[in-house]
Amino acid sequence: MTLTAVLLAGGESRRMGTEKATIVFNGEPLWQRQIKLLRHLGPENILVSARAERSWRPADTELVLDQPPSRGPISGLTAALGRTRTSHLIALGVDMPFVTTAQLQDLCQRASAGCGVVPTIDGRIEPLAAVYPVEAYADFTAALTGNDWSLQSLVRRLADEGKVQLVNVVEAEAELYRSLNEPQDLTLPRR
């Protein structure tokens, strides 16, 4: 398996009130923390998915812009898969600072030829900390040009077709997949 990584940082951060990527969390900006996590996985390259260039984007990463009009995370994932020249793409939301390197490594280890891995929590898919096979690009493109831009629907179809494996997250680790959407979300996960 060869790996490309994408940091998804294209959201508008309306509920947070400021760009999530630049929020300092545990002493470092979220973008920096997430890029470090992705680097630990040893990807061939790291993409940053956004709606426009970001001043914080490291020079050794590639910018991938959503094609207008943006349809949310599905736009960023589609664009990133279109630039992927490896067998798999690992995606990570910039606003998911509780995810650990060990969790991402586990997802990568579960992936196989032509099949990615997507966590599920209480039956809900977590598509923004997941591994996708490059073969899913056609499915993402078709979904983006259609009327249903839901990643939940798309990932379920990919699972039905054997392109991703859905993996249940144990209750003790569910909080680690939590994303930051509002200022009160900046507290550490409950144990």
List keywords for this structure.
alpha/beta; 23% strand; single chain; 191 residues; Spore Coat Polysaccharide Biosynthesis Protein SpsA, Chain A
Secondary-structure topology with pairs:
Blueprint: E1 3-8, E2 24-25, E3 28-29, H1 30-40, E4 45-50, E5 62-65, H2 73-83, E6 88-93, H3 101-110, E7 116-121, E8 124-125, E9 129-133, H4 137-145, H5 151-160, E10 164-168
Parallel strand pairs: 1-4, 1-6, 4-5, 7-10
Antiparallel strand pairs: 2-3, 6-9, 7-8
Commentary on this structure:
Helix content is 27%, strand content 23%. It is globular and about 40 Å long. The protein has one domain: Spore Coat Polysaccharide Biosynthesis Protein SpsA, Chain A (Alpha-Beta Complex), CATH 3.90.550.10. The strands form three sheets. Strands 5-4-1-6-9 form a five-stranded mixed beta sheet, with helices on both faces. The chain has a three-stranded mixed beta sheet with strand order 8-7-10. It has a two-stranded antiparallel ribbon with strand order 2-3. It contains five helices and ten strands; from the N terminus they run βββαββαβαβββααβ. It is an alpha/beta fold.
